[in-house]
Amino acid sequence: MMINDCRQQKGTATPDKAFRDMRALKESQSIIVSGESGAGKTESTKYILRYLCESWGCHAGPIEQRILDANPVLEAFGNAKTMRNNNSSRFGKFIEIHFSNKFSVVGGFISHYLLEKSRICSQSRGERNYHIFYQLCAGAPVELKKKLHLSSPDKFQYLSKGCTQYFTSQETEKLLNKDSISSDQCLKGSLHDPMLDDIRNFLALDKALNNMGLSASERQNIYTVVAAVLHLGNVSFEDNPDDCKGGCRLAPGAAEVLNIIGSLLGVDAQYLRQSLLSRVMQTSKGGAKGTIYMVPLKVHEAQNARDALAKALYSRLFDFIVQCINKSIPFSSSSYYIGVLDIAGFEYFQVNSFEQFCINYCNEKLQQFFNERILKEEQTLYEKEGLNVRKIDYVDNQDCLELLESKGSGIFDLLDEESRLPKSSHTHFTSTVHASNNGHFRLDVPRKSKLKYHREIRDNEGFLIRHFAGAVCYETVSFIEKNNDALHASLESVILEAENIFVQNLFKNESTSQQTRGKLNFNSVGSKFRSQLQELMAKLRNTGTHFVRCIKPNFRMVDHCFEGNQILIQLRCSGMASVLELMQQGYPSRAQFSDLYAMYKSYLPPDLARLDPRLFCKALFKALGLNEKDFCFGLTKVFFRPGKFAEFDQIMKSDPQNLALLVKKVQKWLLISRWKKTIWCTLSVIKCK
User: Fold this and answer.
1) Which whole-number Å values give the CA distances from 260 to 137, 254, 255, 266, in the listed order?
2) How high is the pLDDT of residue 166?
């Protein structure tokens, strides 16, 4: 177990320790990178991966380079500008770097979790959609943009609600075409961040995809789907006064957009239009069984259907891209791996929805794991080894996890139960949550929030949860919709019949062929995420664990600004204050007597190397003259104060002259020790007589 500031030598300390532990213990390792949004998790992860690949790869050969090439690809499709972070990961990833039995890199594998799909259709003011949309508009060749009918971000509804400015440098800003620039870009200019440049990032993305083995036509297929998602947002609807059932029709100009989408995806525009404006239903009871009829959709229902299709297209494209990355970094056999977890940090905004609920649940699970590995297991070990270390108290968040995941009364189960009802509603779900967990310390009504905005939320439209990192008020209005990952069969059929084989294949593997025509099945997002998280936690528990805690120096995203109070809050909420106290009082480094014996016996002459491991260590430490406050002998291990094991190791690996002097000291101490023991035994015998 290790906690490190990942900025030390650009993040080399932790991966170096993980690799050495893997080699010494012959056990796979995990590095958990955590912290608030904007604290530096993604950048730390990149440093860690680069260090592992460049240090123990074949001089950045094809496999290692492809592992590194995954970064610009995943960032383009999975990262976005938020109010707190210009390059915020809106999904979680666990990147495994696999090693041979000779400890060289042989391949990798990426698992991804909980892509924020709601961002595809809307963003808050000042935030952006996923980087790829802007990279494509700014950096794609003119011919490709013309073919995909792309223009400036403010011309697309899925981008115009948020920030429509590009990230550029002084050099690349001059390369922007006039028809690609939004009105906001003209007024305010470009956004600037040393890590982001939409034009250069598109070129890096295209190169990385090419390095992974994707042909020019395959890359164009990817960009085509991205463009189709953008155009879908421009399909608008209006009430149809001629429809007595309250249905809607396409707004002026929408038919032309549908034709563009049809040509991009290879689908029949009329069939798509029909599936967006109406739902095909099939009777199962009453009347002629199997009768098919059309149900016209209202404006908001048609908008929801359009958005559901856009989210499905993008999320399946994201799945495909991760599969391509994994295919490009295969391994036939693997002895061990080092996994790096980079997942969204704890989030709390003015408006918190289902995405924040899932993200914060994940962070609760990771916090509990951190407490178990660092605090609980550490103190249990001290007690077992007979060390006299004062017990450190910490906040146990088990009760919060029970509120979220308990069978029957847990919020996730209650949400799934509500989602299966014929006439589900967010108000009924919220009321059930409060009724089922009445009096729970971690749960409260929105009016108990410190923020005025939250206090105006009705009791049946939200709830407040006291998380380990602070209280968060969730609005439940979209919980049921966001918890269902199923696409209506009518819309899915449109895609499955597409002439574009690439688009068709995105849905083939995920297709729910058993869906009743017209019926919207329920695929629980929450249940899927909990299952994925359970698998992830099992992996983490079966590996040696290292933690990188990223701390955000300020909340203004500016350089050289240190806000002490905010930093202290982060340290306390993350459990670091308790850890630092334990490290100060405890012994964070330790080694088995037998391991030390095996490590250093080759440096010593045969008469000393024959000693039993415990006596060997005792003789060694006495001879070195180490301060007894710097180490402590347990039953099976020797424990070191912070930094002292490194000093000890340095002494043992010093030049031969010093080592010869050390051997003499060990021999002298051993001789004196045995002489004293002989004298004591002799005196005891005389006394007995």
Assistant:
1) 17, 10, 9, 10
2) 98
| Confidence label for 513 from pLDDT (cuts 50, 70 and 90) | very low
CB 414 within 8 A of CB 433: yes
Distances (CA, A) of 360 to 38, 298, 310, 427, 440: 15, 35, 26, 22, 18
Q: Which two tokens stand for residue 637?
A: 């291990």
512 is in an annotated binding site: no
Q: How far is CA 367 from the centre of its chain?
A: 14
The pLDDT score that the predictor gives to residue 683 is 56
Q: Are 37 and 323 in contact (CB under 8 A)?
A: no
In the block, residue with structure tokens 């605090």 = 375
Residues 479-508, mean pLDDT to the nearest whole number: 92
List beta partners, residue 293.
281
Tell me how many degrees the CA angle 51-324-117 measures, rounded to the nearest 5: 95
Nearest 5 degrees, angle CA 195-CA 196-CA 199?
A: 140
Q: Which two tokens stand for residue 111?
A: 């698992």
Alpha carbons 570 and 552: distance in angstroms, whole number: 8
Over residues 192-219, the mean pLDDT reads: 96
The answer on whether 82 is annotated among ligand-binding residues is no
**What is the reported pTM?**
0.86
Q: Is 37 annotated as a binding residue?
A: yes
C-alpha Rg value of the chain to the nearest Å: 30
Q: Could you give the angle at the alpha carbon of 137 between the alpha carbons of 136 and 140, nearest 5°?
A: 55
Q: What is the pLDDT of residues 391-449, one digit of tens each?
A: 888 888 999 999 999 999 999 999 999 999 989 999 999 999 999 999 999 999 999 99
pLDDT digits (tens, 9 = 90+) for 150-188: 999 999 999 999 999 999 999 999 999 999 999 999 999
42 is in an annotated binding site: yes
Which of 531, 529, 525 is CA-nearest to residue 416? 525
Work out the burial of residue 338: count CB atoms within 10 Å of its CB; fewer than 13 is exposed, 13-18 middle, 19 or more buried: buried
Catalogue the active-site residues.
Answer: 37-38, 42, 85, 88-89, 345, 347
Considering only residues 553 and 619, tell me which one the structure prediction assigns the higher pLDDT. Answer: 553
At residue 594, the 3 state secondary structure works out as helix
- Has 41 been labeled as part of a binding site? yes
